[in-house]
Each structure stands twice: as structure tokens, then as C-alpha cells.
Amino acid sequence: DAGVTQSPTHLIKTRGQHVTLRCSPISGHKSVSWYQQVLGQGPQFIFQYYEKEERGRGNFPDRFSARQFPNYSSELNVNALLLGDSALYLCASSLSAGVETQYFGPGTRLLVL
Amino acid sequence: AQSVTQLDSHVSVSEGTPVLLRCNYSSSYSPSLFWYVQHPNKGLQLLLKYTSAATLVKGINGFEAEFKKSETSFHLTKPSAHMSDAAEYFCVVILSGGYQKVTFGIGTKLQVIP
After folding, report:
1. For A5-112, CATH number?
2. Mean pLDDT, to the nearest integer, of B1-24?
3. Where are the domains of chain A?
């Protein structure tokens, strides 16, 4: 079975641009969470979506937004990119929105110049 | 509010000796606690989780952790380190009461010396 997939794997953008990252969960999983991992630090929670509704949010500015589609895939959007947004963006899927085991994708590495 | 403190950023052990990775948490409510491992250039993998059942939790690859409420700790241990255990380990606390909040620790890099 396919695990969590993310696209693209790598991305280079310039300051002020907008980026969209995509995630497909494991088949049967209805919840997707997004994390930002800056080099040398632990992942920071951005959002959790379940059944297309936001069920959790971390301390990120409104430049960060996400949505979940009927097939449970998800997009993370970041507007007005800053240099500090350079990071590995991880997506994780789980069966539901409760305290479930999360299965992580390989991540999208974003570099903002 | 909740927080996770991993007390050591780096731990170095000799192969075959015990491993102890320390984690303390702070939470207003009863948390669920996890340990994840991240090998270089690989995704995060769940080692074990505590969700208010038995306080001693056994995970994969011989790891285990004990939830101690009085000490607000959830330390990860393994009796005998293997070279393949070299990786970064993250302690995670999750509060879920309708609206979920997930907090990762900063990570502990485990080095295993042959």
C-alpha cells in the first residue's frame, strides 16, 4: 500500500511569492496534518484537517492556510513568502482526528531566496 | 497550555550499552505522549505511544517508555543500543478535546559508537 505522498519534493521560491504544497493521505485515512520543520529543530504543528474541516491550528500567521478535499487529500498554501519560511514541510495522515498514530510523508523542502 | 522539554540535544552511547532519552512535559490536562524517530533522509516513524492505558509502554525495536505523572516525565529507554538506532528522536504531546494541538520537542540526536 502506498504511504503518505507529498509533492513537490523540492521547491525554490523568492520572497513575496506564493506556494502550494500537496499531500495525499494513506487510503482510508480521513485526517491530514501539516508541520513545518526548520533545520535543526523539531516539527511545528501548523494545521489538522478532518472531514474537510479544520480541527487543529498551531501558532502560525494568517499567511498560512490549508484545505482538505472530498478525497481527503490536502493543500497547504503560504502567501507572501519570507526567508524564514524555508523549511521541510511535513504532511501526516491518520484515521481520524483523535489521538491517533500519525503516518508521515517524506516532506517538501522549500527554499525561499 | 502544553510544552515538551527534551533534556539532551545529543546523547552518545557505545553499542550494546543502555539508552536513555529524557522527556518532560507540561500540560493542563491529561496528555497523550508519543516518541517518534527520524533517520537521516527518512520520514518520521512512530516508536511508541501512551494514551492513558498502561504506564509502561513497549514500542518497536526494543524501545520502551514509562509515563510518570508525578514527575511529568516520559523517558525513552532501550537495554542495549544497536548501530541502527543512530537517529534523531522526538518526544510529542497531543491534547485532543475537539480541537487538537500537537507539540514536538526539539529532538535528541542519538549517536551510537561501535
Report:
1. 2.60.40.10
2. 94
3. 5-112
pLDDT the model gives residue B53: 75
B→A contacts (Cβ < 8 Å), by residue, are 32, 36, 42-46, 49, 51, 90, 94, 96, 98-107
Tally Cβ neighbours within 10 Å of residue A103: 19
Q: State yes or no: pLDDT of B97 exceeds 70.
A: no
3-state class percentages of chain B: helix first, strand second, coil last, to nearest 5: 5, 60, 35
Identify the contact set of chain A against chain B, taking CB-CB distances under 8 A.
3-4, 33, 35, 41-45, 48, 55-58, 90, 92, 97-99, 101-107
Highest mean pLDDT among A54-63, A91-100, B12-21 belongs to B12-21
The architecture (CATH level 2) of B2-113 comes to: Sandwich (2.60)
What proportion of chain A, given as a percentage, has pLDDT over 90?
84
Residue of A99, A101, A103, A108 best to disrupt the B interface, most CBs of B under 10 A: A99
Distances (CA, A) of A95 to A26, A31, A76, A85, B16: 9, 6, 19, 29, 37
How far apart are alpha carbons B62 and B52 in whole angstroms? 21
